[in-house]
Amino acid sequence: MESYKQYWNPTIETMPRDELKRLQLKRLVSQVEYVYRNSQFYHQLYSQAGVAPEDIKTFEDYQKKIPIIQKDDIRKDVTTDNPFGGVNCVPPEKLMIWVSTGTSGIPTFGGRTREDLVTMVENLSRSFWAAGFRPGTKVIQQFGNWHWSPQNLVIACARMRVKQMMVIGASIGPFARRAALLTKYFKPDFLVLPATFTQLMIEEAAKMGEEPTELFSDVKKILISAEVLTPLTRRRLKEKGFPNAEVHFYAGGGESQCWPVDSCYPECEGGHLWEDMVFSELIDPETRELIPGAERGEQVTTNIATKGTPYVRFDMEDLVDMYYDSCVCGRTHPRMTIIERADWQIKVAGKTIVPFDVRMIFEEFPETEEGIFKILKYSDKMDKLKIVAEYDRKKTKDRKELKERLEKRIKDKLGLDSEIEWGQVVMPSMDKVTHKIVRIEDLTKQK
Prior knowledge:
With about 450 residues, the chain is of the alpha/beta class. The protein has helices spanning about 10-15, 15-40, 40-50, 60-65, 70-75, 115-130, 150-160, 175-185, 195-205, 210-215, 230-240, 355-360, 400-415; strands at about 95-100, 110, 140, 165-170, 190-195, 220-225, 245-250, 270, 280-285, 295-305, 315-325, 335-340, 345-350, 350-355, 375, 385-390, 420, 440.
């Protein structure tokens, strides 16, 4: 069997930290001047803030003087002629357009130049090579063709000489059936798919009269996107459909160019964030203040190697965990894992939680392991966690006792009093889910 190099780009991936930070700073300073000179949005933003490119010489200068921006800051300037809101640094007609999933509301438009495409492909090539892609590897990827990911990954796979690349076009049932058929005849080593789509493939295989665990037995790794993986999701995918596959998480934002794939080594949490392409910071979701060296916070990123529509100090509105310790793989870049949308955090009795915290507790109980619940935000100041949920009636007849057990577990694990109400929870059908599922209902906006 042919032996391949460990790293896609060993010079950059294993660059000493001090050298990497010097390169990052050089590109960061250069990017500030570039967007100031070429983007209407950034020129106006920095002028109003009293900042000029020559003011930025250090990381500290950058973090003190350059404003943090959010999606709404850009959306207010979106027009039919310029969907980029003025962030673009080259004319719109010279850009290849991509669109975000729109999890937080209106989708964000982005555009890339030919040079940006090279950068994005390099980014993904490193990450997927670290995940195990090699010449001859067979892959099925599923994402809508409008999304930022598929075109980049198709080209990255061509660079890595991956044997074939099948792109399935949409997250709906009929395409899951097609993916199951392709898996039967193509026998891929890897699947790159949203979690819900993978579950649909298992269902469609059974409808075809196939035993899913046999049909999908050749799959070695599944890289899951969209919904954050829980231990139960991983276990179910292996038990019900993919017995020989490792299940890993792959997610990120087109704006951030942070697309970690958490599978370089099992003992290392998170996937690598390439610091020669992006500058990442964490802020406190409540105070909006920078928290240097934090292990968890709301991610703010800057593209330092993008020229089409660079996002500079852009709030991704994602709550992430960062890992700065040395990775056993030898790569010197930090690692990250996306936990939840930052605006899905709520404060109860002085403690901040996210739906993922509740979901993990619900999955401990067979009666509620499907995780069908919604957290009710009933006030800006809440002293009790209120949840509407469903349970499996086949697994218990005593819903009062189940309610008491769940509320006790929430108290033990989260330190919060809670009130669970059994009722119908409207959740999107799996064959219609294209992004993360919202599990908070804000009643304060209905008053």
